[in-house]
Amino acid sequence: MRRCVIVGGADIGNYDCIRSSLLEDDFIVFCDSGLKHLEALQVKPGLIVGDFDSHDNPHLDVETIVLPCEKDDTDTFYAVDTVLKKGYGEVVLAGGIGGPRIDHMFANIQTLRYIYECGARGYISDGRMIIRYMGAHSKLLVPYDDLITTISFVPLCDTKDVCIRGFKYTAEHRDLGASHPLAVSNSMINGQDGCISLEYGEGLVFVIYK
């Protein structure tokens, strides 16, 4: 499965973590103000996308798509749609969490849902936190990692038949409502993998590292 890493303009809390997670054959895309991370990540982009309203066009010897400032899609969504149409089966959004534009973070979460709807896999990472989207009839394995401090499941709507297993706090075939945060701040058990599944509804899984 071909993987693409799209670098956005939000904060990256741990560059070493992002660099160490990159694969040799990853296709790297920088979106507009994500270019501020170019030097720190020490990678060469395969594509640059943006309207360049928040960062100058670096005019590198790299394919560059210049978008209009007035448009329907965010730069990141346009980049995601582009790479999905190129056949990439997994998309990582690096630099897509937090920062002064919290609205962009929620737009990136919407984009995660779009990736899922297109039949691909994806997650958002800032080097300290990973956000994954879960749809109906899905299961997420969380391999044990002693660097993980917190795991939270946040329903986006009323969910049914949720199972949370292998963590300190478990749930078996529970219905979790969107207005009651019952599955926040869980933790791993030493040496044990965890698993979250749901049959109906959709939600987000937040994995936070030291």
Describe the 3D structure.
This protein starts with a strand and ends with a strand. Helix 3 packs parallel to helix 4. The radius of gyration is 18 Å and the shape is globular. The strands form two sheets. Strands 4-3-2-1-5-6-7-13-9 form a nine-stranded mixed β-sheet. It has a four-stranded antiparallel β-sheet with strand order 8-12-10-11, with no helix packed on it. By secondary structure, the chain is of the alpha/beta class. The longest helix is centred in the middle third of the chain and has 16 residues. Helix content is 18%, strand content 34%. The chain contains four helices and 13 strands.
Question: Which terms summarize this structure?
Answer:
globular, alpha/beta, 4-stranded antiparallel beta sheet, 9-stranded mixed beta sheet, 210 residues
Uncertain runs with pLDDT below 50, 5 residues or more? none
Q: Quick one: biggest sheet?
A: 9 strands, mixed
Order of helices and strands: EHEHEEHEHEEEEEEEE
Strand content: 25-35%
Average of pLDDT: 96
Task: Summarize the SSE layout with pairings.
Blueprint: E1 3-7, H1 15-21, E2 27-31, H2 38-41, E3 47-50, E4 64-66, H3 75-85, E5 90-94, H4 102-117, E6 121-125, E7 129-134, E8 138-142, E9 148-155, E10 159-165, E11 171-176, E12 194-198, E13 203-209
Parallel strand pairs: 1-2, 1-5, 2-3, 3-4, 5-6
Antiparallel strand pairs: 6-7, 7-13, 8-12, 9-13, 10-11, 10-12
Write a brief caption for the model.
This protein is an alpha/beta fold. The protein is built from four helices and 13 strands.
